[in-house]
Structure formats: structure tokens, C-alpha cells
Design goal:
This protein is α+β, with helices and mostly antiparallel strands and 275 residues long. The protein has helices spanning 28-33, 37-45, 74-83, 90-98, 157-162, 167-171, 221-228, and strands at residues 2-7, 10-15, 18-22, 48-50, 65-70, 103-108, 113-114, 119-120, 129-130, 133-139, 145-153, 155-156, 177-185, 195-202, 205-213, 238-241, 259-264, 268-274. A hairpin with a 2-residue loop joins strand 14 (195-202) and strand 15. The mean pLDDT is 94.
Length: 275
């Protein structure tokens, strides 16, 4: 397993507890274009200089699109049925949860993604906004899942609940997503008992916390990538958020200044604040 950190000075590779800067510059796009991303990074790390631990981080993406899967957890299915019941769309989510074809939607381009430690946003025309902590797959240009990171899928629940056709407006806007703090490249994905946890702090106190496990995702992770790449191409690869199993109660909405921390070993903790 290798961890990749993106900084303003280039990529830092963490391998076996050491931070390294490859002698030959390495880019995120190169990694996602490679047939064997782990092999590529290992070969570059073999010729590298010892580096300091990275400080200020960028989101670990370059030209990649960010997509997302919905209704992959039972908890998400229930929440989305509840939020849209008055619009008559609740049954859509139940059908998707049981269907072979998953819900997949576009989430963000690189310029819309917030870096670790920076601000995510809530829409000014929404009154019910929540973060969604998600295991996020790294998929290369050939459609192979080769690693993962953490994602925050910021969502305006009242806009989507008003009408399911408003999903793009509820999900896609400037700084509606965050990724990081690093990209993990490994031969295996997190085990079913791996815990994804979230904590939201407001004025120094915990306003909400919760956790779920990767094993609660209904669909095989590789199948989500396979569906995304059907009749679609990603020359620079992509990230795919895999859905959320932690949903704050209906009475909760984010406020300016809230601090959001999402944790999954060995990725670490993705921290952002609402700006």
C-alpha cells in the first residue's frame, strides 16, 4: 500500500512510513492513465529523495471527473424516500435500491472540489444541507479500481426532495465536494468491517456524529465502476463516490462555520469547514 499526497510543490509518496519525492516528477494524471498504477508509483518511489511530511494539501486529483453512486446503503434509501415523499418520488429510490442498475450521477470537475482543510459550500437557495461521508474509488482510464480516498458529497436535501429531477442542482455547484486527505493505492480495497465515521462540530461542540461500515454497501464496489464505464470513457480516469450510510436527522442542517471531519483508516481524516 502507498499513500499519495498532493501539494503545491508536487506529489509526495508515503511508503513504509517514509515520505518520498520521486526524482522523476510524477503526476496524478500519469497514475490514472497507467495500466498498473501501483507498479508505476513503486518504480518511481525506488528512485526518490526523502521528504518532509506534507503540510498544506491539495485535493488528490488533476483532470479527473468526480461521479457518485446513490442509494447504495439502506439508510440512504430510507432518507431519500422520506425527503421526497411529498413530491411523490419516494418509490423511485426503493426501486433503485433493488434494481440491478445503480443510480450514478456526475458530481464535480476538479475546480469544484475543495481541498483538505478548505471551505465547502452550501447553496444560498437551500435551507436543508448535509454532508455525506463516502468511500471514494479511484478508477484508471481502463476502468480498473486501483485505490481509494475519502469524499464529502455535499447535498441540498430540500432541493432534491422537492423534485427528483432537481438532483443536479442539489448535488453540483462550486465546492460541493471535497476529496482527501490522500490517495491510497493498494491491491485490495477496505474490508467490510472498515469504519467510515463523521463528526460535525459547531462552535466547538459536537453537533452530529455517526459511523457506518464499508460492508453495509449493498452493491459490489467493482460493479459500480463497471456500470460507470459502460458506454462512457475517462481518458484520465475518474473518482467514484460510493454512497453514504450516515445521514444526520431530518432536523439537522449545516451552518456557516461548521467543521466537518470524515475518517477512514488508512486514508486518514478529511477535514473541511462550511464557508
Amino acid at each position: 500500500m502507498i499513500r499519495i499526497f498532493s501539494t503545491t510543490d508536487g506529489l509526495v509518496v508515503e511508503q513504509a512510513g517514509r515520505f518520498l519525492r520521486p526524482d522523476s516528477p510524477l503526476t496524478i494524471d500519469e497514475i490514472f492513465q497507467a495500466a498498473d498504477p501501483l507498479g508505476l508509483v513503486e518504480s518511481r518511489a525506488a528512485q526518490a529523495q526523502i521528504a518532509e511530511a506534507p503540510g498544506t494539501l491539495l485535493a488528490p486529483l488533476q483532470s479527473q471527473e468526480v461521479w457518485a453512486a446513490g442509494v447504495t446503503y439502506y439508510r440512504s434509501r430510507t432518507a431519500r424516500m422520506e425527503e421526497s415523499k411529498d413530491a411523490g418520488g419516494g418509490s423511485f429510490y426503493d426501486k433503485v435500491y433493488e434494481a440491478d442498475r445503480p443510480e450514478l450521477f456526475f458530481k464535480a470537475t476538479a475546480h469544484r472540489v475543495a481541498a483538505p482543510g478548505s471551505a465547502v459550500r452550501i447553496r444560498a437557495d437551500s435551507k436543508w444541507n448535509v454532508p455525506e461521508p463516502e468511500l471514494t474509488l479511484a478508477i484508471n482510464a481502463a476502468g480498473k479500481v486501483f485505490g481509494y480516498t475519502l469524499g464529502n458529497d455535499m447535498s441540498s436535501r430540500d432541493i432534491e426532495g422537492e423534485n427528483p429531477l432537481y438532483l443536479p442542482q442539489a448535488k453540483v455547484y462550486d465546492r460541493s465536494a471535497a476529496l482527501g486527505p490522500c490517495l491510497v493505492i493498494a491491491r485490495t480495497l477496505p474490508l467490510p468491517d472498515a469504519v467510515i465515521a463523521i463528526e460535525i462540530r459547531r462552535a466547538g461542540a459536537v453537533a452530529f456524529s455517526g459511523e457506518t461500515t464499508v460492508g453495509q454497501i449493498k452493491r459490489p464496489l467493482a460493479s459500480l465502476a463497471e456500470w460507470l464505464y459502460r458506454e462512457n470513457s475517462f481518458p484520465n480516469g475518474c473518482f467514484l463516490m460510493t454512497g453514504t450510510g450516515v445521514v444526520p436527522p431530518d432536523g439537522f442542517t449545516l451552518a456557516a462555520g461548521d467543521e466537518i471531519s470524515i475518517t477512514l483508516p488508512p486514508v486518514g481524516t478529511l477535514r473541511n469547514f462550511v464557508g
